[in-house]
Amino acid sequence: AGAWSVTEGACSVEGDCVTSPNFPSNYGDNQGCSISVHENGKAISVGSFQTERNYDELFVNGEAFSGSNGPAGKVPTTAVPITWTSDRSVTRAGWKICLP
Questions:
Q1: Residue 65 confidence (pLDDT)
Q2: CB 45 within 8 A of CB 97
Q3: Rounded to whole angstroms, how far apart are CA atoms 93 and 100?
Q4: How far from chain centre, in Å, is Cα 61?
Q5: Dihedral Cα 36, 10, 23, 17, nearest 10 deg
Q6: Strands 4-9, 82-85: pairing kind
Q7: What is the β-pairing status of strands 82-85 and 57-60?
Q8: Which of 67, 54, 74 is nearest to 95 (CA)?
Q9: Quick one: residue 90, left, alpha or beta (phi over 0 = left, psi -120 to 50 = alpha)?
Q10: Cβ–Cβ under 8 Å, residues 46 and 97
């Protein structure tokens, strides 16, 4: 089953990592996804993180991350899905996060 699975939207699982839609190319406008975490107690490592600050946000445990400030070191809970949302304009390369 792996560390996580995409339950909704266009994000992709690559091994122990999950990426935004189209990564490493830019993600699209008005996109979103929901990611279920299957392993407790592991901290996220960030391979890449570049989104439109304050508008295109990745939520881990309900906390928003955007711009170049990724969720490195955060320990996601299996109880709360990780979610991604982008607004109607300005896209960036997006993100790749991993569980070791």
A1: 98
A2: yes
A3: 22
A4: 12
A5: 20
A6: unpaired
A7: antiparallel
A8: 67
A9: left
A10: yes
Find where tokens 């994000």 sit.
11
Distance CA 84, CA 100 (A): 21
Q: What angle do CA 36, 48, 62 make, to 5 degrees?
A: 40
* Separation CA 98–CA 44 (nearest Å): 6
Q: What is the pLDDT of residue 1?
A: 58
Q: Is the peptide bond before 24 cis (omega within 30 degrees of 0)?
A: yes
Instruction: Give the model confidence (pLDDT) of 5-55 as tens digits.
Output: 999 999 999 999 999 999 999 999 999 999 999 998 999 999 999 999 999
The first and second tokens of residue 75, run together, are: 């320990």
Q: Which residue has the tokens 């990426």?
A: 19
The DSSP symbol for 57 reads E
Token readout for 100 is: 């070791």
